[in-house]
Design brief:
20 helices; mainly alpha
């Protein structure tokens, strides 16, 4: 393998790196930690405790579910640490599935992410942010839907512009908002534990009383908890931009996931110090109810911090998931223009712009929440496919250099739990799962026509080349320079 090829992908120092037009390695270990923590800690921990408690049935049962969800996320993240240092390309699951199983499975994952998952997730996060910002203006009624959607659109456009302008600006924004949301949770935790120390422990008496005995209920509680942990694999989308990824990717994971798990457990204990189980079940925003009970005139800081949390989470998602579009185009499975980089700013401007447009389109539909429900099953299957690819490559290519290699029990355990998460929805929500599978399968004819069919009419190639040239001139972008492994 040529030396310069290894340098480009692994992140070793190279004299040519600074002069090439490529995505620069600017992300430090701290940036990696704030990306993972910032994306995981969105609105979930401020809302999800209700869903977990509703299904687990007891205080003790819900705390156990939160701990198990954290352990599951850590096991999955360890698998992704091995994947990310073995296949050190950006793109995360797309790169791993394509490498292990070939171009069609990789494209189908890309198709689902582009068509539904990324734009609808961005739209939902932006709508959550807008709701928390607008709600105080309309204290006695629901805010106008048009106002919420307009603010959500402004939020998406502003964050896209920042990410297009400068990677450092985006990462500094991510660092700042991640620190802000941790401060918010520390306020909840410290307040709760002060009250606990003053004797408010009645909600922990007989803490496993009324625990559910139905395995299906715990499965649903597990899903609710995992929603609050979603995003632990997003740093793998930007591996090529991480300094010394062989060291910093696993370090960021090992710092972030345990930290989030501990914070989540302590935050839930704090919630239960102040709120009875019935109080929590009656609340649509647990953290806001907590703040109203104990913070008095300062209760407004909780919805403010939730808004900051969702804003920072959206920035992290826009930054990381845009690289899926970029890598997909670089691999020849999207138009060439999407794989272009700004010659002045070294950002994947076309992929960010495309992501922004698709997210804005999702804001225009009232079915955005329904669409994401269809794809939850597909997301779980994609993660399982990536870890399945890890096991497959262990046997298919045993001599690949693996800087990190965990015992087989780690990925096998993760796959067994993933199988449970994939099979359960097939019985609980078969229609939604079949629709999700249908959406993914609709990518097969697209792949055959636009990817697998190489002898297209000359007019099609000329049209594509003209569009690409005009986009290059308009945005001042070019193809990435240097060799990619």
């Amino acid at each position: 393998m040529p030396a310069e090829k290894v340098d480009t992908v692994t992140g070793s120092d190279s004299t040519s790196q600074s002069s090439d037009i490529k995505l620069k390695k600017q992300l430090t270990l701290f940036n990696g930690v704030t990306i993972i923590v910032g994306i995981i800690v969105g609105s979930g921990i401020f809302v999800s405790p209700k869903g977990v408690l509703m299904e687990a049935g007891s205080v003790g049962g819900s705390l156990v579910v939160w701990g198990v969800c954290g352990a599951f996320s850590l096991i999955g993240a360890l698998c992704y640490a091995e994947l990310g240092t073995t296949i050190s390309k950006s793109g995360g699951d797309y790169a791993y599935i394509k490498e292990a199983f070939g171009p069609l499975p990789g494209f189908l994952y890309l198709w689902a992410m582009i068509l539904i998952i990324i734009p609808s997730s961005n739209a939902i996060t932006a709508l959550t942010f807008a709701n928390y910002v607008v709600q105080p203006i309309f204290p006695d009624c629901s805010p106008p839907d048009s106002a919420v959607r307009l603010l959500a659109a402004v939020c998406i456009c502003m964050l896209t512009a920042i990410n297009c302008a400068n990677v450092k600006w985006a990462t500094r924004l991510q660092d700042g908002f991640t620190v802000t949301k941790i401060i918010a949770l520390l306020i909840v935790i410290i307040t709760g534990f002060i009250l606990l120390g003053m004797g408010s422990s009645q909600n922990f008496e007989n803490s496993f009383e009324n625990s559910s005995k139905d395995p299906g209920s715990y499965a649903i509680a597990f899903y609710s908890g995992l929603y609050a942990y979603a995003g632990w694999n997003y740093l793998n989308f930007v591996t090529e931009e991480l300094k010394d990824p062989y060291k910093n990717l696993p370090r960021a994971i090992m710092i972030s996931i345990p930290m989030v798990t501990i914070i989540y457990l302590l935050a839930n204990v704090a919630y239960f110090v102040v709120l009875t189980p019935n109080d929590m079940l009656a609340s649509n925003a647990v953290a806001v109810t907590f703040g109203n009970r104990v913070l008095g005139a300062m209760a407004w800081i909780i919805p403010f911090f939730v808004a900051c949390s969702t804003f920072g989470g959206l920035n992290g998602c826009i930054f990381s998931t845009s690289r899926i579009f970029f890598v997909g185009a670089r691999e020849g499975q999207m138009p060439d223009a999407i794989a272009m980089i700004s010659v002045n700013r070294f950002t994947p401007m076309p992929s960010l712009a495309l992501q922004c447009i698709l997210s804005l389109v999702m804001l225009c539909t009232s079915d955005v929440f329904l669409l994401i429900n269809y794809m939850t099953f597909i997301e779980a299957a994609s993660v399982a496919a990536s870890v399945g690819g890890l096991l497959y490559l262990r046997f298919k290519s045993p001599n690949i250099h693996r800087p990190i290699k965990f015992p087989l029990i780690v990925p096998i355990t993760f796959l067994i739990i993933c199988a449970f998460l994939i099979v359960m929805p097939l019985f609980e929500k078969p229609v939604e799962c079949l629709i999700g599978i249908g959406i993914v399968a609709s990518g097969i004819p697209v792949y055959i026509i636009f990817i697998a069919w190489h002898k297209k009419p000359k007019a099609v190639a000329n049209f594509s080349a003209n569009v690409t040239t005009k986009l290059q001139k308009m945005l001042m972008v070019v193809k990435q320079e240097g060799k990619i492994e």
